[in-house]
C-alpha cells in the first residue's frame, strides 16, 4: 500500500465521536487564537499587498477583518498571510512550526460555503493537526534543521487532510490529494525576517485546499509521490534523514493536541521571556500591586534563554520585542504586556524606564526548567516578593492557558479590526464553536463587526 | 552583491535592441509552438476541474484563456490554466541544458501580462528571452544533480524563468527583479515522483502562476531576502546541497551567445514518446526517399534504438491510443504507412489502422548500447529482397542542428490548433505569430487564438 494511502487511511480512521473533550478544548483555543491573529494582521501592509486588488476577483468567502470577499483559494491565501503577518500565532512542538495558520485558512472558505457546523470544523482541524504532526514526526527535526520552513512544507499536509475531511473524500481521493500536496510544498527559511515568511503560510493554505479540491473532482496524483526515490522524503529530507514508521504509528493515541500539544503565545514579544512576564504579572496582581515601591528586580532564567539580544534594554520598536528588561518592566508597571506597548510612542514611559533600569538578569544552573523563570522583587521598605514559573502559561496541556488570558490577547488583537462589542461577540461565539450550527454565522458575525 | 541581484543585472543586460534577428525568430516560433500545444492540451479533462477550482469567473481580467471560446481571466488564472494546458500533452519544446521544457512556464506568464499591460510584441519577446536565459543558466549551475535528485526542473527552475520574465514585463530594475527571484525561491516546487499524472502539467501551470505572483507581490511592496539563493537555508543548499552546484557557471558567459541560440531549444515534432523519435525520423527519411510503403510490399522491418529508450517503448502489440504513443513498433509502422504522425492518430477506437495492423507483426525491435543514446535505425526488407535502411539521431525534438522548418512547424501547429480554431483559423494564427514585429500589438494574435469565433 502506498504511503499516501496509509496516511489517508489513518486520517479517516480517527473518530471524532471519541475525541477527548479536553483536546477539543485545546482546538477551540487554538482556532480562536489564530482568528485573533488574523484580525490583527488584517490591517498590516503585508496583508494589504497579498490582497492584490484588481487581480484577485470577488467571491463568496470572507477575508477576516476586511470587507473584501474572495474566491475560496484567494481567501485561504489572504487569511493565511494575515494570520502569520505578525508571527503572533500558535506553535506546535512536533511540527516545529505554526499549524493553525495553515489549516484554518484552508478550511474556513469551505466551511462557510458548505454549511459546515462548528463541530465539523473543529473535528476537521483536529484531524489536520494530527496528520501534519504525525507526518512531521517522520521528518523532523532534520527537515527543520536543513532549512525548510515546516509551517509551510509540512503544514500543507494538515491543510490538505482537513480540507479533504470537510469535502468527505474517500480514502483513494484523499491519498491522491496528499500526493498532489507533496508536489506543491514550498518555503525556505532563507526568507525569514521578510514578508515572504507570512507569504509561505498563505501559499501553503491555498495549495493544500487546491489539492483537496482537485482530488475531489477526480484528478489523480502518483500514489507513491512521497516514498518514491524521487519523492517528497528523498527530495526534501534525503536518504537517512527520515523514518516512515513514526509517520504511521500513534495516530490519536493520544492526539498530538494532548501530547505534546500546541503552545499559545500570549505576549507580542520573544518567547524566551514569557515565563518571566507570567511571573511578574502574577506579582503585580498579587502581593506587589503598584510598581512605584520597587527598588530592585532579579530575573533568573536558563542560560539558553538569556542571549545577548534578550538582555538589551529597549531602544527601538524593533528591539523592544526582544528586550527582557522592557517586557518585565511593562509587566510590573501595567500588569499586562500588549501590542500597544511595542509601538514607538510607548517606549519612553518614565515609570517603565525607571523599573527597566532596576532589572538584573542571572543565569540559573543548566538543570533549571528550559522555559521557566524565577523573579525576585525587593521593595523600598526592604521586603521581598518572589514568583517562580516552571512552564509558561499556554505552553501546552501541562500548562493550559487560562481563558481570561486568551480573551485578553484576543481582545488586544481583534480590536484592531473589529468593534469592541463585535470583538466580545466573536470571542463568545468561538468559545461555543462546538454548538455553532453553521460556520457562516461566525464569518458573517466577524464581517458585520469589522470596522 | 547578492546572487539574486547579480543574476538580475545579467538578465537586464538582455535587451530587445541588441537581440539578433535569429533570436527574435526563435522566440516567435516558441510562442506559436507553446500556444499550439496548449490548444491541443485543452482537451484533457482536468483542465475543466482546474478552471472550476480556481473559480476563474470570480476574477475579471484581461488575459485570454487560449482556445476557450474568447474567455478571459486574471493574469494569475490565465498563467496557471494556459501553463497547465501547454504541458498537458508533453508536446512542448525542450532544453537539454534545463532537463526540461523552457517555454511552457514562461510564454503563458508573458502573454497574460502583455494583455494586462497592453504591451508590444517586442516587450513580450524581450521578456521571453530573459526568462529562458535565466532558467537555463540556472540549470547550467544546478544540473545534473538537481534533476537526478528528483526535482522537476520545468517547475523548479521554470518558476524563475517565469518570475524574471514577469519582472521584465513590469519594467523592474535589478533590485526589484532580485526581490522577485528571491520570493520565487520560496515558491519553487515539483517532484518527479508525480510524473505520469496530471500533477506534472499542473507543476508547470503553478510555476507560471507563481512567477507572475512573485512579480505582482514585489510590485505591491512585499519583501524577500535578496540572499535567498546563497543563504545557508537558501535555494542552493536546499534544492541541491553543498558541493553540488556551481554559482560561477550561472553568472558567467552572459556576454557570449544566448542559450536560446546555442545550444538552443528543440521543438518536438511528433506527438508521442521522445524515445521513439529517432526511429520515426529514420522511417520518415525512408518515406521521403521511397514514398509511402504499402504493407504488402514489406517482408520485414527491424528497428534499433538505445536499450534504455527501448525499455519503455518496446510494445509490439499496443492496446490503446496511449499505449501506441509509447510503442516504437506502432510509431515506426505508422510513419512508414502514413508518412506522418498526427495527434488524431491516437484515438483508442481508430489508432490501429488496417495498414498498421498488417505491418506490426513484421517488426522486430532491438536495443543497442551505442554512445549516442539518441541513435535510431530502421531497416525495411521488401518482398523482392531489397533492403532499405536509414538512421537518425533526434535529441528531445529538433533543435538548431536539425531544425524544423517553418513549414513543418506550421503543420504541427495546424494539427494541434485546428480542433479549436478550425483549419483556416489555425493557419492564420500561425502566420500572424510568425509575422510579429517588435512594435506590433499582441491583441490580434491573442484574439485569433482565443477561439472566440470558432464558438
Structure commentary:
The complex is a heterodimer of chains A (451) and B (455). In chain A, α1 (3-13) crosses α10 (171-182). Helices cover 51% and strands 8% of the residues of chain A. Chain A has helices at residues 3-13, 21-41, 45-50, 72-84, 100-114, 118-139, 142-146, 150-153, 155-166, 171-182, 196-216, 232-237, 245-248, 274-288, 308-311, 317-320, 324-334, 350-356, 403-414, 420-431, 439-449; strands at 61-62, 69-70, 91-92, 262-263, 294-301, 359-363, 373-379, 384-389. Chain A has 21 helices and eight strands. In chain A, the strands form three sheets. A four-stranded mixed sheet of chain A has the order 6-5-7-8, covered by helices on one side. Chain A has two domains: 3-266 and 408-449, 2-methylcitrate dehydratase PrpD (Orthogonal Bundle); 271-389, 2-Layer Sandwich (60s Ribosomal Protein L30, Chain: A), CATH 3.30.1330.120. The longest helix of chain A has 22 residues, at 118-139. Chain B has 455 residues and is of the alpha+beta class. Chain B folds into two domains: 3-268 and 418-449, Orthogonal Bundle (2-methylcitrate dehydratase PrpD), CATH 1.10.4100.10; 274-393, 60s Ribosomal Protein L30, Chain: A (2-Layer Sandwich). In chain B, the strands form two sheets. Chain B has a four-stranded mixed sheet. In chain B, strands 1-2 form a two-stranded antiparallel sheet. In chain B, α9 runs antiparallel to α10. At the A-B interface, α3, α4, α10, α11 and α12 of A face α3, α11 and α12 of B.
Summary keywords:
heterodimer; A: 451 residues; alpha+beta; 2-methylcitrate dehydratase PrpD; 2 domains; 4-stranded mixed β-sheet; two-stranded antiparallel sheet; B: 455 residues; two-stranded antiparallel ribbon; 21 helices; 6 strands
Summarize the structure.
The complex is a heterodimer of chains A (451) and B (455). Chain A has 451 residues and is of the alpha+beta class.
